[in-house]
Specification:
Shape of chain B: rod-shaped
Largest interface: A-B, 43 and 33 residues
Number of helices of chain A: 8
Largest sheet of chain B: none
Structural class of chain B: mainly alpha
Shape of chain A: globular
Order of helices and strands of chain B: HH
Strand content of chain A: under 5%
Order of helices and strands of chain A: HHHHHHHH
Helix content of chain B: over 70%
Helix content of chain A: over 70%
Radius of gyration of chain B: 40 Å
Radius of gyration of chain A: 18 Å
Oligomer: heterodimer
């Protein structure tokens, strides 16, 4: 292994769990999270030489993972729409098949599975920014300042974004049956 | 009635706190092998593309320079033959 290969390996070892778990929170599916992690590390390995500072590296890795996860979910949604059109299934039928298969997060305990799945179902219906602020603050348990760095927003903007995300999520959960 | 029976933001805050208790999962090592080999392949492809474009530009330039010299030498030899024709004609006419 060359020095560059070792650098890649050490970056992977340091951040593999962070990337994989964050991807899992977005996708709630192990195979999808693996795919997102692979794409994230390809992007990291291609551009790692531009980074020296450790704190900037962590924020940058968070940003790449968030963007790759959102891109993945967008393309998955587009594929589902294509499948729906080509198979001429009823939309409800397709949603039921997909959510039964997709809502699997290995980090969730059996006792909490039903409640967490219901919350994630609600989070999945939020906009990208609202979803990201809730996942980073509540699931990843990062501070407002850290989330501000990742999302490139001020502390105040994160606070109001979080409040709006919660209001929207509460509306969604209230209408959930 | 909704699944979680939530009505206020405070209740939602408590429900969201549950998300913080989700256990961290160990990432599969296979992710590295795939990402690393794909990055290497992409780097090789980029290297090949870059050098083949450089080679193509170099060949194109060589072709242009060669063409220019060929054109110029053709012009020079044509000019020389024209000159000799003029000279020979001059002598021809001067005899007359």
């Amino acid at each position: 292994m060359t020095k560059q290969d070792l650098d890649h390996k050490s970056v992977f070892d340091n951040y593999k769990n962070l990337v994989y778990n964050l991807a899992l929170h977005y996708t709630q599916h192990t195979q999808d999270a693996e795919e997102v992690s692979q794409e994230t590390f390809i992007k990291i390995f291609e551009n790692i030489d531009n980074f020296r500072s450790e704190s900037a590296l962590k924020t940058w890795i968070y940003r790449i993972t968030v963007n790759k996860s959102l891109d993945f979910l967008k393309s998955k949604k587009a594929n589902k729409n294509t499948m729906y059109r080509s198979n001429s299934l009823e939309p409800e039928q397709l949603t039921m098949n997909v959510s039964a298969d997709d809502n699997y997060h290995p980090g969730v305990s059996i006792e909490q599975r039903e409640a967490v799945t219901a919350i994630f179902d609600g989070i999945n219906q939020l906009s990208e920014q609202h979803r990201t602020v809730i996942i980073l603050l509540k699931v990843q348990q990062l501070s407002m300042a850290e989330v501000g760095d990742i999302m490139d927003l001020s502390h105040k903007a994160i606070e109001s974004l979080f409040f709006r995300a919660k209001t929207k999520l509460l509306d969604i959960l209230k209408n959930q049956k | 009635m909704n699944k979680l029976n939530l009505t206020t933001i405070e209740e939602l805050d408590n429900a969201l706190d549950m998300l913080g208790t989700i256990k961290k999962v160990k990432a599969p090592e296979a992710i590295f092998d795939y990402a690393f080999s794909k990055t290497e392949n992409q780097a090789k492809t980029r290297f090949m593309t870059r050098w083949s474009s450089i080679a193509a530009v170099f060949l194109g330039l060589t072709f242009c320079v060669e063409g220019f010299y060929l054109f110029q030498s053709n012009n020079t030899s044509q000019a020389k033959s024209m000159e000799s024709l003029v000279v020979s004609n001059k002598y021809t006419y001067s005899y007359e």
